[in-house]
Amino acid sequence: MAFPLSYYILPTFLLLFIIRKVRESKWGKCKNNVQLDGKTAIVTGANSGIGFEIARELAQRKAHVIVACRTLEKAREACLQIHAKLKSDQAVLIPMEVNLASLKSIKNFAEEVNKNHEEINILVNNAGVSFPNSQRMLTEDKFEIHFGVNYLAHFYLTSLLLKLLSIAPSRVIVVASSLHERGEINLSDLNHLHSTKKTNLYANSKLANVYFAQELARRIESNHVRVYACCPGWVYTGLFRHSLKWYHYILIAPVAFFFMRSAKQGAQTPIYCATESSIENETGLLYRDCKPYNSKAIFYDNVGIKLWEQSQQMINDATKEL
Ligand SMILES: NC(=O)c1ccc[n+]([C@@H]2O[C@H](COP(=O)([O-])OP(=O)(O)OC[C@H]3O[C@@H](n4cnc5c(N)ncnc54)[C@H](OP(=O)(O)O)[C@@H]3O)[C@@H](O)[C@H]2O)c1
Ligand SMILES: *[C@@H]1O[C@H](CO)[C@@H](O)[C@H](O)[C@H]1NC(C)=O
Ligand SMILES: *[C@@H]1O[C@H](CO)[C@@H](O)[C@H](O)[C@H]1NC(C)=O
After folding, report:
1. Which pick of 39, 176, 213, 230 has the fewest CB atoms within 10 Å?
2. One GO molecular function term (predicted)?
């Protein structure tokens, strides 16, 4: 009686396996072997998911990697884990604390980096959060949490590191998401104090990320700095842990199997943006699957400019007392 079972089950698994492999082949892989000896990189949110895999790969390629995490403890733990996975024990991993929900913490972090390093060659603005809209969480400085952590924190962090980024050829990687296509920027309510429940706060922050990358590329004076926005794809990480219940995970399992990338697969496009030499003269563009991505969103120059100016103003106001 076992015969019919194996007759169907084996081919079924084989078929599923093949479907998965075909999908994977479309996700793109960073194929270059560019080494990063003597370069210094920073990865935010490097203790988990995509950020962890980016930090590991940059260290594998011999960059000195500042593993920037919400607490020093998490950063140290991440460094240990990365060390354990590397083939060589010569990697230089520097654990540092940066709580992106606090402008004060970002300022302290940047001061320390500016003090201890001569130049920065790669900055990966990766950390991000996703909460249910209804929770209405705020950062320490009273910014809506998606706007504050995913966008404004990285805006501030990047501006504080611009001098070090301008010393030698460098790349700023902005980890956005294709969900930016569902986002909107309300210039009279950037911090979402009045927005309705329906607004997708996460998507809005990711749209702001893409605008930031475009505007940064346009404004930067140093010819050394290149800016790359990217979408890692749909990745199986802890990002949605605040929005998902246990039974969601069971429902998601089959979807995850077919459509979701591992963290390592999700890290490919950010790593590509950080290392690929054929795109060394490109800046301000968006990438996905290790190639340029045509966004369905419509971008308006004046929105990018006003978003930048208002963000700068918000930071100036909030950091006056720091
Ligand atoms: N997963 C996807 O499908 C997907 C799709 C498109 C884009 N992305 C983007 O990819 C990036 C990485 O996400 P992931 O999927 O790898 O999720 P993840 O595993 O949840 O990683 C997010 C990282 O951000 C850190 N972080 C959050 N709030 C922070 C804060 N206030 N200060 C410092 N660090 C903070 C987290 O630290 P803790 O561990 O301390 O919370 C964690 O290390 C995000 O920008 C996300 O928007 C993900
Ligand atoms: C933008 O925000 C203002 C509140 O300042 C609100 O009146 C308006 O309806 C919002 N616009 C959109 C398109 O949500
Ligand atoms: C980038 O520009 C420099 C200077 O113009 C040039 O030497 C180099 O070949 C260019 N790289 C690529 C990949 O086009």
Report:
1. 39
2. oxidoreductase activity
